[in-house]
UniProtKB/TrEMBL annotation:
Subcellular location: Membrane
Keyword Transmembrane helix: yes
Pfam families documented for this protein: 7TM_GPCR_Srd (PF10317)
Main location: membrane
PANTHER family xref list: SERPENTINE RECEPTOR, CLASS D (DELTA), SERPENTINE RECEPTOR, CLASS D DELTA
Protein name: Uncharacterized protein
Family from the record: Belongs to the nematode receptor-like protein srd family.
Cellular component, GO, one term: membrane
């Protein structure tokens, strides 16, 4: 699991950093899409804001895929005996989507000055004094930018629903093998799956409404001003909730946090015995159980 948790935590930190670095607002024009930032990147120039916006979209996409990958790996590791490596490789192709988002975003011609002047011309009632010079996508209706929008909307909708199906399948397999496992192992595994199920549903809750407003503003010719700020806010919510869900639903994490808090407030006492429960392992023959290690008493 650490091979999934470490990258997931890194992506969450990087996503939070990009959000702070950009603090962006997107404004649709007739042809272009302006990316106006109030974060530190605005002092470095519009090019930094432009590149940061592309990478924050790709990072959020990679984070959602990684959560679903974690759940899918737990399913195939207990349900399928043959071709496990092949199944892992096939799912790994999902990580092409963040790369596609980056590549497609750079294919259309980049003209930051044109975006700046078109925005000033169309939105004369806006106050842009706090944004310095900004840029964005010169042609947001380009076929490649349309494909980027389509990829983001489809992934934000289909991927969580697919992950929810895999969650139910994993719980079914667990119920079929619960007699071959220790009670503690079943409890920990079930908590992990429920936590992953919530993690994969967060993008559906956060990104789908934002995607709707984005598409509406882009193609309707009208602007819902509050929606210009929602993408920056909603895109970083998974980075906030994911660590909380991991701490609560991964039992060793929860115990470690409780122990740390107890030590901070001075109520922690070293236990006389330490019972260690192995992480659940469903063997391929589904007959061998993962039993708790016998308690070791201090001498």
């Amino acid at each position: 699991m650490r091979y999934f948790l470490y990258p997931s935590n890194f992506i969450n930190f990087f996503l939070a950093f990009l959000t702070f670095f950009l603090q962006f607002r997107n404004v649709h024009n007739v042809k272009s899409l302006a990316i106006m930032c109030q974060g530190p990147c605005k002092f470095l120039g519009p090019a930094w804001c432009f590149h940061g916006y592309i990478f924050i979209l790709a990072t959020a996409t990679a984070g959602g895929i990684l959560n679903i990958h974690t759940l899918y790996y737990r399913l195939i590791s207990i349900k399928f005996i043959q071709n496990l490596s092949l199944r892992v490789f096939i799912f790994g192709l999902w990580y092409i989507f963040p790369l596609v988002i980056i590549i497609f975003s750079y294919i259309p011609p980049i003209d930051l000055d044109a975006v700046y002047w078109e925005t000033l011309k169309i939105h004369v009632d806006y106050d842009f004094s706090n944004y310095k010079v900004f840029g964005g996508f010169a042609n947001s209706h380009n076929i490649f930018m349309t494909l980027v929008t389509l990829i983001l909307v489809i992934l934000a909708t289909i991927a969580p629903l697919l992950g929810f199906y895999w969650r139910n399948e994993t719980l079914k397999v667990l119920d079929l093998n619960r007699n071959a496992l220790s009670v503690h192992s079943v409890m920990q595994f079930r908590a992990l799956i429920h936590g992953l199920g919530l993690q994969i549903m967060i993008p559906l809750i956060c990104y789908v409404p934002v995607g709707f407003f984005y598409v509406y503003n882009k193609y309707s010719g009208e602007q819902i001003q509050i929606s210009q700020y929602t993408l920056c806010f909603m895109i970083t919510l998974p980075a906030f909730f994911d660590p909380i869900l991991q701490i609560y639903f991964i039992v060793p994490y929860r115990r470690a946090v409780k122990r740390m808090i107890s030590q901070m407030i001075g109520n922690y006492r070293e236990p006389e015995s330490d019972v260690r429960v192995n992480t659940i392992t469903l063997w391929h023959n589904r007959r061998k159980s993962s039993q708790p290690v016998q308690p070791i008493h201090n001498i």
